[in-house]
Amino acid sequence: MTTVIKRDPARFLKELKTHYGDVWKMPTSDYLRKPDFVVLDPKTGKKTRVSFVSLEDGETVAVVYDELG
Hints:
Structural class: alpha/beta
Number of strands: 5
Shape: globular
Radius of gyration: 12 Å
Number of domains: 1
Order of helices and strands: EHEEEE
């Protein structure tokens, strides 16, 4: 199930970049069909989908997102 987070998407992604080395804007990624997070901008109501890309052993190797809301 997708988690909805009500925060400023730019700030949320900036914080992800401090913890994960690869944070990529890939709006057409297959990983975003079922995102791990939807960041809802409380001011505009726009949504940003965010997914973690993991290897088979569970190691997270990247974070992808679509357009910033």
